[in-house]
Amino acid sequence: MSSDAQIGEELRQFFLRLIQDGEALQQYNDPEQRAGLIQSQHFAYSETQELLLKGTLAQIEEKIRAVTSNPSGAMPMLIVWPPM
């Protein structure tokens, strides 16, 4: 896996954990608690944390799409993103 794919996998796992943990999802949805939640995670790549804190949805989607390395350019069916 390339570093983009590895970062994408970390992002994918982070969002899957949010879906499974209602309390963490509530913290992520609260702008005052979001940064603390993200900073409390242990990511192998600092870019993962930076993307979650400051990245755009398009940048995050690009990294997640790199996980499959699918040349057809398959796109995720649904991205869960809280209203800002």
Task: Describe the protein's architecture and organization.
The chain is mainly alpha-helical. The chain has 5 helices and no strands. α1 (3-20) packs across α2 (22-29), α1 (3-20) crosses α5 (57-65) and α2 packs across α3. The mean pLDDT is 85. Helix content is 63%, strand content 0%. The chain has helices spanning 3-20, 22-29, 31-39, 46-54, 57-65.
Secondary structure layout plus pairing:
Layout: H1 3-20, H2 22-29, H3 31-39, H4 46-54, H5 57-65
Helix pairs in contact: 1-2, 1-5, 2-3
Low-pLDDT sequence parts? none
The proportion of residues in beta strands is under 5%
Whole-Å distance between the termini? Answer: 32 Å
Rounded to the nearest angstrom, the radius of gyration is 13 Å
Helix content: 55-70%
Number of strands: 0
Computed structural class: mainly alpha
Order of helices and strands: HHHHH
What's the rounded overall pLDDT mean? 85
**If helices are DSSP runs of H or I spanning 4 or more residues, what is the number of helices?**
5
* Biggest sheet layout: none
Shape type: globular
Keywords:
84 residues, 5 helices, globular, mainly alpha
Brief overview:
The chain has 84 residues and is mainly α. The protein is 63% helix and 0% strand.
